[in-house]
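Tutorial sheet, problem 5. The four components below are modelled jointly, 302 residues in total.
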Amino acid sequence: MSQGADTPTAVDQVLELAVLLNRDMQLSFERDGLTEARARLLWVLRGGPVTQRELADALAVTPRNVTGLVDGLVATGYVARAPHPTDRRAVLVTLTDAGSTLLTSMVEGYAEMHDLLFGGLSERQLRDLRRSLAIVNDRLRARVEQDWGAP
Amino acid sequence: MSQGADTPTAVDQVLELAVLLNRDMQLSFERDGLTEARARLLWVLRGGPVTQRELADALAVTPRNVTGLVDGLVATGYVARAPHPTDRRAVLVTLTDAGSTLLTSMVEGYAEMHDLLFGGLSERQLRDLRRSLAIVNDRLRARVEQDWGAP
DNA sequence: ACTACATTGTGTAGTACCTTCACGACATGA
DNA sequence: TCATGTCGTGAAGGTACTACACAATGTAGT
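Model answer (structure tokens):
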């Protein structure tokens, strides 16, 4: 009602933000020879070696899928499979040197994202933005969690 | 520096927003028997029938991929292939009645998203949010478009 | 110690999304 | 008409997922 048809709505803006964020991260992953799924798995390994079962839970995917993702990361040399010290069924997924280096640069990139995103905002604008985002996220989260149980 | 380790950073908030938006839309698509890729294709058909070549350009995917997506939507009965009036090579992808109905509800859902997202904000908060999002999006867009040509 | 049950990872099979390459059908301009 | 480009699709292949089945192993219960 208040703007022309070519002006993006607030919903448009939020959706574009989501698209741009995805694209930016995907481009970053591709530069490292990673896919999105493998990058997510690697990100979980920040906390140290974990079993494939734990990875499946953390990523909310099936154990079978983790097998495939780990296969890929082993092929590219970022992780290795090691025997679990006490459970001979389980496999510990550990970072190789290359994987550790890559993960370090990913953590740095995450930190640099703050300036990239918010470098154009004043302190006050950033504070207000955070407040509004908290409210928006709370509403969205409630909706998503509700719909998760009522398909 | 200013908050505890368990408080989400501004980057965390933006990333969570993106994740939640994706999840919400995906759940909505699933309810309609749609996948994300097929929903995007359907969304392009808002403007009327288009050729598969135009769809490939609009979706930024290969023409071969469009063939598969249209196959799926034909199987579920949401679109149909029609001959192009002047170009016998081309295929016009058109909405069926079911597809048209579905698209209408998708458009309605898009409109309702405004209240879902911003119903908890005051007029002033929403204005400020839009201003900040415009700034953030501009910076991100510049970065993504720059990296698109320099891998 | 032996049995019963649960858990871990993976082979098999299948779906969806995406790509490149090759090719036939068709359009277009010289 | 003839060369050249365009449209859609078959063939082949990669990645991300799923469900199901199964062997190896861990964990109780008796």
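Marking note: Chain A touches chain B through 47 residues (CB under 8 Å). Full credit if you identified this.
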